[in-house]
Amino acid sequence: MVAIVLIDLAAAPPAGPPPPLPAASPAPLLALAAAPAARPAPSRWSFRLAAGPAWGFSDGVALQPMAGAGWSPSPRIRLGIDLGFAHHVGSTPKILSPAVVDALPLRAGAGLSLGAARLEAGAALGGYRAHAANDQLGLRAGAFISAGWTFRGWSSLHPYLAAGLDAYARKLEVRVDEQVALTAGTLAPWLAAGLAWSRGAP
User: How many other CB atoms sit within 10 Å of the CB of residue 197?
Assistant: First the structure.
């Protein structure tokens, strides 16, 4: 028995280093390298319609419908333009016919979205047409600031509320027969409620 064990040990091959492990396949690395880079979100167009009370003329509050369009280069930034319309009538006891003014406020600027809230600021142009003894056309330059809140609703259509302030460089006076029939100050606050529609990635 002892001789058999010794012969078996002597016949066993000498122990050598362990065989090398197979090299990792480069397929996963090639798959990662071939994967396309993530594309940025596409730009988004948006439109809105609204109406609300507006102040600033001597005849008091007036209804101001407005319409706007915007383009968002990123989810938080919006570049937009809005056009409003308001009808004003002023008179004094000393004049026979009242003065009628159609105001066309134009606002163009940029907005920053903070969740559902949005802050906007930019340039404002207060166009007007006065129907008095003679028709008068004019334009007042200024700036505006506004804050809005969007209620996320039906797919691309969202209700929203906004409040803003237009500030103009000069006042406006409309005269009839040398009498001041209607005036507008340099500050014109407004409120708006309406619907916003957007297209593209949120």
Answer: 13
Across the chain, which has 202 residues, the per-10-residue mean pLDDT values are: 41 53 50 49 81 95 97 93 95 78 97 94 96 84 96 82 97 85 94 88 44
pTM of this prediction?
A: 0.74
Output the CATH code of domain 44-199: 2.40.160.20
Nearest in space to 89 (alpha carbons), one of 12, 195, 161, 184: 184
Cβ neighbours, 10 Å, residue 182: 24
Listing DSSP states for 97-163 in one string gives S-EEEEEEEEEEEEEEEETTEEEEEEEEEEEEEEESSSEEEEEEEEEEEEEEEE---BTTEEEEEEE
Residue written as tokens 């008091």? 60
From the CB of residue 151, how many other CB atoms can be counted at a distance below 10 Å? Answer: 11
In angstroms, rounded to a whole number, what is the distance separating the alpha carbons of residues 102 and 127? 8
Domain positions in the chain: 44-199
